[in-house]
Write a structure and sequence with these properties.
Layout lengths: L4 H9 L2 H13 L4 H21 L5 H18 L13 E6 L7 H12 L3 E4 L6 H10 L4 E5 L3 H4 L1 H11 L7 E5 L5 H7 L3 E2 L3 H11 L4
Parallel strand pairs: 1-2, 1-3, 3-4, 4-5
Helix pairs in contact: 1-2, 1-3, 1-4, 2-4, 3-4, 4-5, 5-10, 6-8
Keywords: Cobalt, Metal-binding
Pfam family, one: B12-binding_2
InterPro entries: Cbl-bd_cap (IPR003759), Cobalamin-bd (IPR006158), Cobalamin-bd_sf (IPR036724), Met_Synthase/Corrinoid (IPR050554), Meth_synthase_dom (IPR036594)
Length: 212
């Protein structure tokens, strides 16, 4: 292929069909699937994530890029050897019990998926029991808790206490986010990390798992 960076650009631009076409051509030219993921697809997602953080791109841009990334990965799946780990980690994510907000949480989930994580999205109004069960069932590396209300954010503490009771707290990193949440609150309830936006969430998760 003349210019492999076109793949990254297609992700940044959120062009699903173009990304799939370019990835298909790269495979035909003999390029290794993992190289395409590491050197071009994730680079594109990192770029759009940074633009979003810098307020040079917006929610629709981020979602379109994540969609293009997922589409490109679908093209690559048949060409991946069984030894190649297609996911860099497993994330369980949900909005805590009593809270029905999901736009921000879904944006973070899309960003995680686009950057190579396996995502288990539990939705809204999720009980501590359901979070604990999902962490255990999917052997999660990261648990992301979201809350948009001051009245529901304290439920995050319940989830962490239940993880502890189940003997899972040491096995999973807990990240929290949402409008009323901050780093001081995260530290107070025993979470590992607070992040304020989708890009920071992915960057923080990679740091927690010592990736990149």
């Amino acid at each position: 292929m003349e210019d492999m960076n076109q793949i990254s650009q297609a992700i940044v631009d959120g062009k699903l069909e173009l990304a799939q076409e370019l990835v298909g051509k790269a495979i035909e030219s003999g390029m290794d699937a993992q190289t395409i993921i590491n050197d071009y697809l994730t680079v594109g997602m990192a770029e759009i994530g940074q633009r979003f953080q810098d307020r040079k791109a917006f929610v629709p841009n981020l979602l379109m890029s994540a969609r293009a990334m997922k589409g490109a990965l679908e093209v690559l799946k048949p060409h991946m050897s069984s030894e190649v780990e297609t996911h860099i980690g497993t994330v369980v994510i949900g909005t805590v019990k009593g809270d029905l907000h999901d736009i921000g949480k879904n944006l973070v989930a899309s960003m995680f998926e686009g950057c190579g994580f396996k995502v288990v999205n539990l939705g809204i109004d999720v009980s501590s029991e359901k979070f604990v069960k999902a962490v255990e069932e999917h052997n999660a590396d990261i648990l992301c808790l979201s809350a948009l209300l001051t009245t529901t954010m304290n439920y995050m503490r319940n989830v962490i206490l239940e993880l502890d009771k189940a003997g899972l707290r040491s096995k999973v990193k807990v990240m929290v986010g949402g409008a009323p949440v901050n780093a001081a609150f995260a530290a107070q309830i025993g979470a590992d990390l607070y992040t304020s936006n989708a890009n920071a969430a992915v960057t923080g998760a990679k740091q927690l798992l010592s990736i990149a």
